[in-house]
Amino acid sequence: MAELPLQKLLVRVPDTASLVALRPACLLENGSPISPSPRLSSMAAANASVWSVDGALLALMGAGVVTVYDTNTEEQVARLEAPGVMAAAFSPRGTYLATFQRTRPDAGNTEKNLKLWDWRAGQPAMALFQKVFSRDAWPSLQLLPDESLALHVVTNAINVYNLRDFAAGVLKKLALKGVGGCAVSPAAGAPTLAAFVPEAKGAPGYVGVWRLDQLAPGGEPPPPVARRTFFRATSVTLAWNAGGTALLATTASETDATNQSYYGEQKLHFLAADGSLDCLVPVPKEGPIHDVQWAPSGEYFVTVAGFMPAKSTIFTAACKPHYDLGSGPHNMARWSPQGRFLAIAGFGNLPGDVALYDRKADGKFKPMGSARVENGVTLDWAPDGRHFVTATVAPRLRVDNGFHLYRYDGAHLHGERYEVLLEVAWRPAPPSTFPERPPSPRAAANGAAGRPAAPPVVAQRPQGYVPPSRRGNPDSSASSVFSLAYDPADSRGRLGGPSLRSLPPGAAPPDTNGAVGEPAGQDGGGARASNGHSAASAAGATAGAAEHGAGGCNGAAAEAPAAGADAAGDAAKRARALQKKLRQIAGLRERAAAGEKLGAEQREKLAAEAGLLAELRELGVRD
Prior knowledge:
By secondary structure, the protein is mainly beta. It has a domain at 567-618. Helix content is 8%, strand content 34%. The chain has 4 helices and 37 strands. Helix 2 (566-593) runs antiparallel to helix 4 (609-618). InterPro entries: TIF2A, TIF_beta_prop-like, WD40/YVTN_repeat-like_dom_sf. Residues 228-424 form the Translation initiation factor beta propellor-like domain. Residues 430-574 are annotated as: Disordered. This is Eukaryotic translation initiation factor 2A.
């Protein structure tokens, strides 16, 4: 077998950032026990880091400067003076480096704190003023794939600049009152952008798609190529697929209209870039959208959604449900760089189970292993797609800091502990560096190298919580059960079924093997099932109502809880509510550790954590 290219890990601790090289022989399925080579480079202390898309460059931020390193020679190639730098990002081809810096209190808008550096020359190619910074909306300057134009969101408009003639000022603009963010399509060819406008004065919010070559210098917006409207959305995350043919918009509001979630509510919307389809993605289970990830090829996307245990579902690039991966204690999905393998994990306040799948040529997703990662925070696939690293890092967690290296089937290869670990990340590689490879026959046979895959985490049906008034009653075993890992209505396998558009209004599709119908072109989601466990046959039981999803839901009524299960159902509902509050508290703790000042109400929520944990334990649920 040909020698594998060298792979490197960035390991960042408070006093230094280092590149750790892993010897290729150690990464083979039948290789010797893992043993990282000595650290090749110990760099200066850094508050944050950012890679170029191809992994050839690494920028470290700290002490008022940004240093750029060539990751092949591991030599410093640039040093940029940037006092108060808060964030950085490389352009698509690595030609430029964008930075955002804090301004002096007395500087006003005269200090240009948003810069696009020609880092080789050591000078800004363009500099602008930006008052507000949001990590969710970073990078604030978005460049086209060919780096010819730069886009910047300002009040009520998106400005477009020619990078080859920045001194000429704004080349053209898209005037959108209240615009809240944008995302440039990664596809080459006709440049396209998506933008979000929140609701205002009774008018719904919307996401639109525009062609940049149709914009005029005056800013009068042309009709969007695609558009989807919705209510109850204070923020949106926009995600293009690799080919720029489809867009996913995850909307979020701070409150839940159904009063079931402590964390507000989320909806997932789909838009075809050519305007041929826009719809609400028919996630088959009621509850929050935990994670959404496009496959690297852009042919599929995966959703992890619903009240715990959350359901993971594969959709095609045409927004058709394709495969049901079942339910479990999960809130994260990660594709390998080649898109062959998929990891579904549950980190944060979840137990740390990782389920691993192999995408077959016939479209099936076959389970191939699992792992248990205690106190896991991050999961990152190696560029070769054969390994992944998990880490427990500060400030998210201050205990058990370290990282662990796993094989694609869940076999544990190596681990290192640190007193304080801030970041672990693979150096990216161009897509052609590592070809797609199927699972090794030796790995499928539980590892001929003597390192068997981790035993799968089997979701056993637990004994449900029984209220004191019903203990000792033999009929109590018939009560409904709540578990992070078990869903009595669960189903797995390939999805299919009749189109919802072919059904009469309000009719539910026939019950098939986890079938979920075609998405309805409206907001409001699918039908709701008892105790937050939405059976696949109940999903999408609505016909199209208001155009573009601004109207209500004509879906079928929710199923009533089973007779005699009211008390256990109440306990399950209470447990879900407690777990959602704990997840929000974990997020508040992380924000506080990052230096954000919390309000009085947020501090009260932090102080209530111990009581919530105690109540959860009284319900017999692992916290």
